[in-house]
Design a protein that fits this description.
With 153 residues, the chain is an alpha+beta fold. The protein has five helices and six strands, in the order H-E-E-E-H-H-E-E-H-H-E. The strands form two sheets. It has a four-stranded antiparallel β-sheet. Strands 1-2 form a two-stranded antiparallel sheet. The two termini are 29 Å apart.
Length: 153
């Protein structure tokens, strides 16, 4: 068995263990990756939960998306600083073939940390992309999520 395979099996076996602490605990640090294990189910972690948000764009929204990018990013800044927006970014129709190519964006994905699904909807509805109808909110999917691994970027 190669060292890479052993390391992968080791990390996989560690990620299935559940510590008793009500906080996320750093388990292992390798290169630029820190693995966290989740507490036992039922602990509310300060009443904050992870929500995976997937929102497609309306057809032909790329121009509106780009012209409202600044407002969208400014809206997101306080959510990021407060730790409520854990990750976000556009979904693409395909990966760009060169670094100069502007990819066709098809929607957005976010991982938000809030106390309820209604709080997630409030954040989404107040976002400039929702207000100018870049996003198709009728097709938005908000899924309760439990993040098992977070890595440093």
């Amino acid at each position: 068995m190669s060292g890479d395979n052993r390391r992968a099996e080791e990390l996989e076996s560690q990620s299935t263990r559940i510590p008793r602490s009500p906080r996320l605990l750093p388990e292992q640090t390798t290169s630029n990756c820190q693995t966290f294990l989740l507490p036992q189910p039922g602990n509310q972690m300060s009443g904050q939960y992870d929500w995976l948000v997937q929102i497609p764009d309306h057809p032909n929204a790329q121009s509106d998306r780009m012209s409202n990018l600044s407002a969208h990013l400014n809206y997101n800044k306080p959510l990021i600083v407060a730790g409520q927006m854990v990750l976000s970014g556009p979904t693409l129709s395909a990966q760009p073939k060169s670094e100069n190519e502007i990819p066709k964006m098809t929607g957005s994905v976010m991982l938000l940390k809030t106390g309820s699904e209604e709080e997630v909807w409030e954040m989404v509805r107040e976002n400039p992309y929702a207000k100018v109808r870049v996003w198709d909110l009728d097709k938005a999917v908000i899924t309760p999520f439990r993040c098992a691994v977070r890595t440093a970027m």
